[in-house]
Amino acid sequence: MILLKKISVFAVLVMILTTGCSKKTLASAEVNYVSGNEGTIVMRSIGVGTNQQEAIADAEKKSINVILFRGLPESSQKIALIGTNESEEMDKHKDYFDKFYNKIRYRTFIMSSIPVSDFKRQNGGSKSLAVDVKVNLVALCKDLEQNNIIRKFGY
Fold first, then answer.
1. What is the DSSP code string of 101-119?
2. DSSP class of residue 71?
3. Burial, 60: exposed, middle or buried (Cβ in 10 Å; 0-12, 13-18, 19+)?
4. Would you say residue 1 has pLDDT above 90?
5. Minimal CA–CA distance to 128: which of 146, 115, 112?
């Protein structure tokens, strides 16, 4: 009986230690529509990073990805600009997306990035920041058309 109690206590202790130390990750698609005018769209995005600049860049990339591959309900851009199969589209147009993300070309379509919260540690241990990101949709669409990623009147 005493042995059974010791084993039970040990098992509970092991479970507490292993689950208590696990690192929680934030959702990757934390982008919401804020407003939009003709040709522009403003989104509030949660960026994660080790410093504020890294978190802002993460929020910008998430915003661009939502426009390209998801669309934003309640906005003028309800459907994805390119398509919903992100990995297939990125493979199909590998050169374009390498330049777009790795050479930070996506920034040319961002009109402003305004932090709207403090850069702080979340429950899971990572630091995050809410950013209002304004994107020039007209220029982004024109660039996608010129590089044959989408056709002139949609994808």
1. IIT-GGGGGEEEEEE-S--
2. -
3. buried
4. no
5. 115
92-114: pLDDT as tens digits = 999 999 999 999 999 999 999 99
Q: How far apart are CA 74 and CA 5, in angstroms?
A: 57
Report in angstroms the alpha-carbon separations of 13 from 7, 21, 82, 89, 119: 10, 12, 50, 47, 34
Q: What is the pLDDT of residues 113-146, one digit of tens each?
A: 999 999 988 777 789 999 999 999 999 999 999 9
Q: Please answer whether residues 46 and 34 qualify as being in contact, where contact means their C-beta atoms are separated by less than 8 angstroms.
A: no
The DSSP element (H or E) to which 93 belongs, if any, is: none
As given in the structure block, the two tokens for residue 145 are 């058309």
- Indicate whether 24 pLDDT > 60: no
Amino acid at 11: A
Q: What is the pLDDT of residue 145?
A: 94
Instruction: Give the start-to-end residue ranges of the domains of the chain.
Output: 32-146
Strands (DSSP E) found in 30-152 = 31-37, 40-48, 110-115, 120-121, 127-136
Q: What is the pTM of this model?
A: 0.76
